[in-house]
Write a sequence for this structure.
């Protein structure tokens, strides 16, 4: 769909606010569920005797479920629209939260976690697909960044507030409460989000279908794939899981102090994504594209990661917050991929890239845990093996960045030729 053709579908400012708030509420609970395992990890580890690899697999189960749905969901979003798809998926999220609350074994928790990940997997892709059609181009990056800001608010809520409620409700009661809140979010979505007309069914449409094979071969998609799968996914893995164990096992913090640290990290990310939303339209007008920001930002993030690994116990939450803030440039790749492909394929393009990210988060969360356990078998101490595992992640991220630079150079050479 061309920009001119799509202008008739642009939402009025008042309608935009209502749609954004409804989607933001759903995404808030999606990220709260995503991050809650970092806060609950001491309780779950003690109650169920989980190893580091078990904990990584449990947290990664959410992302595995998330990844399973991305490709079919992209087609459904383009065909049926955000409202219908997100409401259908969130029914599964309610069931997943209820199953987690009732689980009595690690296998039951893992299955429920996968189910929940599947259920909330449309909570970001649905709004991003809608924004691609409903918002003017200059507003899309802002809305996308502010959705991520809302997600950071959910992660903030998964730290100290969860720690405060845990003695009152227990971890099972917390999941029952989240299930009820998701039902309320579904009501807001049904009320505020508009309907959808599939571009392929519109009269006079002569646009060719864009399939996943074409998307995967697109030079810009391939350029950003390594950044999403390794670098940005690794940051999410650390933010939502491994920052908590680092503070307890390496820095010597108590679980309560670790929850406070996670609160600080996620609050910093909330402010960071709000600022991205403010400055992105201005940066874009001055020639600072997403790929240019990524090219400058990734080395800074990797430098902070190296510093944290070197400092060990002296690297507390402020330095991990600095790493996550610097790594936030990786989030700019997703809306950039969506805008690099035709609007009628927005759902598929965004979902395909989201699959790359969340498959990466699953892989990075589990791989860091496996690496930590493997170093333990070699006789390394608990603090040393987590430092070693994160150093290995840093090496993988540096290789992914090198691939990004190479693909970027090749694409620019082709464009110039």
């Amino acid at each position: 769909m061309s920009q001119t053709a799509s202008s008739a579908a642009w939402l009025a400012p008042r309608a935009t606010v209502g749609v954004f708030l409804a989607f933001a509420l759903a995404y808030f609970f999606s990220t709260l569920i995503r991050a809650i395992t970092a806060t609950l990890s001491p309780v779950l580890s003690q109650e169920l005797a989980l190893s580091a690899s078990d904990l990584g697999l449990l947290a990664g189960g959410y992302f595995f479920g998330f990844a399973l749905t991305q490709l079919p969901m992209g087609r459904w979003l383009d065909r049926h629209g955000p409202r219908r798809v997100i409401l259908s998926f969130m029914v599964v999220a309610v069931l997943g939260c209820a199953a987690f609350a009732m689980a009595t074994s690690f296998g039951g928790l893992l299955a429920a976690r996968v189910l929940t990940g599947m259920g909330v997997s449309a909570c970001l892709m649905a709004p991003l697909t809608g924004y691609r059609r409903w918002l003017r181009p200059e507003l899309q990056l802002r809305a996308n960044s502010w959705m991520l800001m809302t997600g950071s608010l959910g992660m903030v809520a998964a730290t100290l507030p969860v720690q405060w409620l845990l003695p009152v409700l227990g971890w099972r009661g917390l999941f029952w409460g989240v299930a009820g809140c998701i039902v309320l979010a579904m009501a807001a979505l049904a009320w505020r989000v508009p309907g959808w007309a599939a571009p392929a069914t519109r009269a006079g449409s002569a646009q060719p279908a864009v399939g996943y094979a074409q998307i995967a071969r697109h030079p810009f998609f391939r350029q950003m794939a390594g950044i999403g799968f390794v670098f940005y996914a690794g940051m999410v893995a650390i933010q939502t899981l491994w920052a908590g164990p680092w503070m307890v096992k390496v820095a010597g913090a108590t679980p309560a102090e670790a929850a406070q640290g996670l609160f600080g990290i996620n609050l910093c990310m909330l402010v960071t994504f709000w600022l991205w939303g403010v400055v992105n339209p201005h940066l874009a007008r001055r020639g600072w594209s997403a790929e240019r920001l990524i090219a400058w930002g990734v080395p800074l993030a990797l430098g902070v990661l190296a510093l944290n690994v070197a400092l060990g116990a002296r690297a507390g939450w402020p330095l991990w917050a600095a790493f996550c803030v610097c790594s936030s440039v990786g989030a700019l790749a997703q809306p950039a991929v969506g805008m690099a492909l035709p609007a009628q394929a927005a759902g598929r393009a965004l979902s395909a890239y989201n699959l790359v990210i969340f498959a990466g988060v699953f892989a990075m969360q589990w791989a860091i845990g496996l690496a930590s356990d493997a170093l333990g078998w070699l006789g390394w101490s608990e603090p040393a093996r987590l430092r070693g595992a994160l150093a290995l992640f840093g090496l993988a991220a540096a290789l992914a960045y090198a691939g990004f630079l190479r693909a970027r150079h090749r694409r620019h050479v082709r464009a110039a030729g």
